[in-house]
Each structure stands twice: as structure tokens, then as C-alpha cells.
Amino acid sequence: MKRRTFISTAALSGAYSLLQNDRLLSSIKPITQSQEQSTMPFTLPNLPYPTDALEPSIDKMTMEIHHGKHHAAYVTNLNKAIEGTEWDKKSIEQILAGVSKLPVAVRNNGGGHYNHSLFWNWMKPKGGGSPTGDLASAITRDFGSFEKFKEQLSGAGMNRFGSGWAWLIKQDGKLAITSTPNQDNPMMDLADVKGVPILGIDVWEHAYYLKYQNRRAEYLAAFWNVVNWDEVAKRFSGK
Ligand code: MN3
């Protein structure tokens, strides 16, 4: 009896999380603009600004290596890991939503490609300041104030031991903060805390070490000067 109860509960929660994944997926804006780009072979997107455009907050050499070497390698290795499998017609969003069933190379490189594709757009030259409109209201509603929100997201970045990301996510219209190790992200079916990524900060050492060395807190403080709030607001609204 006990065993049967356990099995049916497990089956139910499996079905429930599948449903949750589908709902999550349908609310996510794709990172690619066209259908042709949305399946493998995935390609390295161009940076939306020159590599020196985020100086002095993020230095030129870091941007060159981060985009031209690290992100490029994630793309190459993701294509290698997907080629010849049944996943070669799936979008990156679908791949990440089912990543627990795939080899770890897909989790690492698919996450790497997806996270960085978003990350470049979450920054812009002469960015920073504060959000406006619905996003600003939601931040005040869910965190108390913009200052408290910044403290919490920076704190998530500081407390991530080793490599990973700090995230602002949307869960059923509500905002929350979480962090993930390595190149995981909150859209992955294996994430502890799931949601739609609205803003993410890369806290891998490769994102800041050339300029800030071990001073992750200084990098996080500088990040706020380059945030592209228009892009964050667009992802928040889902449009
Ligand atoms: Mn990175």
C-alpha cells in the first residue's frame, strides 16, 4: 500500500513538472530572431556593440576573450554534442528544458551558449540607472525597493561559490532571485529554482579576472553601470 502510494505520487509529480516545463517554455522569448537560426548548427551571435564599448566597467580584452573565445567554444562544442542526435531539430530553449536527459556536454555548452547570448544584450554602453514602468513597480513590490533588489542580486553573485550565475527570474508574474552553478540556468528541467531569466550576471572568473582579479564585489558593483534596462523590461513583459 505504502509503495503504491509512493509510486502514484512520484508519477503525479513527474507529470506535474512536465506540465510546469511546458508552461515555462511557452512563456520564454527565443534568443534567436529567425527560424533558420533557432536549431543547430548554432552560431555565435555578434556582440551588439564594440568590444571596448563597456569600458571602463568591463574592459575590452575581457570582452574580446569572453565573446570571441569562451562563447565561441560553447557554440562549437554544443554543435558537436547535438550533431547526429534526435535533438538536432530542437530549439536551444527546448534542449535546455529537457537537458536532464542529455549528455553533460549539452548541459554545459548549451547553457553556455544560451546564457551568454542573453548576457551580451543585458549590457549596453551608457547603460545603468534604474528601470521604469511595470518592471520598476514589480521590483518594488517583490523586493521592497530597487536598492534592496540590487543588494540581493549582487549578494547571490557573491555567494555563488566558484563559477556560475546570479539570476533575476519571473515565476508566474512574480520576481525572484536565484543562482546556478557552472552554465546551468533556471529554464533547465534540473534547476532547483525554475523560472524565466529576466536578468543574469556571469560570475565566472573569466567575466572579470583580467580587470578585477579576485575582487568580484567590484565587478558586481561595476555591472550595475552597464545594465540594459530596456532589454530586461522586454524580457519581463515577454514581448
Ligand atoms: Mn561567461
Order of helices and strands: HHHHHHEEEHHH
The N- and C-terminal alpha carbons lie at a distance of 49 Å
Number of strands: 3
**Helix fraction?**
40-55%
What are the segments in which pLDDT stays under 50 over at least 5 consecutive residues?
1-13
**What best-fitting shape do the alpha-carbon axes yield?**
globular
Instruction: Kindly report the oligomeric state of this protein.
Output: single chain
Structural class: mainly alpha
- Tell me the radius of gyration: 18 Å
Main sheet overview: 3 strands, antiparallel
Give the strand line-up of the largest sheet: 2-1-3
Question: pLDDT average, as an integer?
Answer: 90
Strand content: 5-15%
List bound small molecules.
manganese (III) ion
Number of helical elements? 9
Write the layout of secondary structure elements.
Blueprint: H1 2-26, H2 60-82, H3 92-97, H4 104-121, H5 133-143, H6 146-159, E1 164-171, E2 174-181, E3 196-202, H7 209-212, H8 216-223, H9 229-237
Antiparallel strand pairs: 1-2, 1-3
Helix pairs in contact: 2-4
The structure holds manganese (III) ion.
Manganese (III) ion (MN3) binds at residues 66, 70, 116, 202, 204, 206-207.
Written account of the structure:
The chain is mostly helical and 239 residues long. It is 49% helix and 10% strand. A three-stranded antiparallel β-sheet has the order 2-1-3, sandwiched between helices. Strand 1 and strand 2 form a beta hairpin. Residues 1-13 have low confidence and may be disordered.
